[in-house]
Amino acid sequence: MSPSTDTYAQRASTHPTPLGRKLLTIMSRKKTNLCVSLDTPSPVEILSLLADIGPYICLAKTHIDAIPFTAFSSFEDVHQFTASLEALAKEHDFLLFEDRKFADIGNTVKAQYGSGIYKIADWSHITNAHSVPGDGIIAGLREVAEGVEGGLENRGLLLLAEMSSKGTLAKGAYRDTTVEMARGEKAKGWVMGFIAQGAVETREGEDWIVMTPGVNLGVKGDALGQQYNTPEKVVLGGSDIIIVGRGIVAAADPVKEAVRYRDAGWKAYQKRAGREVDE
Ligand code: BMP
User: Fold this and answer.
1) Among 49, 99, 242, 248, which is best to mutate for testing ligand 1, by the most ligand atoms less than 8 A from CB?
2) Does residue 77 sit within a domain?
3) How far is the CA of 153 from the centre of ligand 1 (A)?
4) Can you give the CATH number for the domain in which 192 is found?
5) Does residue 213 lie within any of the structural domains?
6) Count of CB atoms within 10 A of residue 98's CB?
7) What digits encode the pLDDT tens for the residues 141-161?
8) Which residues of this protein are catalytic (predicted)?
């Protein structure tokens, strides 16, 4: 499992999923492989952080169900919030990733993704799913994505192949079986990559976008099992996108930290590519 030395720009024209091509194009255009994880309970703060950090990221990750519902005064407010996320994404040229981690049978995730309070499929370009239920989860979510405006041109799925937390079962053989699942018919043009800690098995003609959470330049972990690595370590190990939450969001100066992580991630990517890649 050796990390790819192809550039984001090269991969942007050949990636097998439309949304993967879109994301890699943004990364090479903006010179950033940083995804910010907006783990803060205030929708106002999320929007204001994004307005400031937007220029330095390729992707904004949310946990919309972690925002207290009391922060919204009505369902219309929730819709207003997701519309604002979409507007900021357009303005600053990044994509949205709702980190929902679907984990049920196809029929149930269809309803969870397409309806419920948050209607994730309506606004989030990317979402993710555990492979534990089997590949019906990929097919169920796909049916919903195909039905939104632009269909799979505008929606992509990541599978969780590995997790960053201590004691996780998602590693080794589980990771490899998850990658195998992403080769199925229903995954084609839809599963764009994985949440993983580094490179995954990639065969001729395949190109998986690997996104890695558990990235921090200051600390090694938290009190609840999170484990951190540096941007350099994960990118040299084959990660394409670094996901940073508290390292940016809980910092005294989030913009300064976003720039620092963006620079560290890009430098590591150039090192991996073996040259001063400018795109
Ligand atoms: P932080 O950088 O503050 O530890 O945040 C990491 C983010 O990535 C959280 O939103 C968490 O839910 C998510 N995440 C993770 O930490 N490890 C995983 O394996 C998968 C995740 O989605």
Assistant:
1) 99
2) yes
3) 26
4) 3.20.20.70
5) yes
6) 23
7) 999 999 999 999 999 999 999
8) 99 (for ompdecase activity), 101 (for ompdecase activity), 104 (for ompdecase activity)
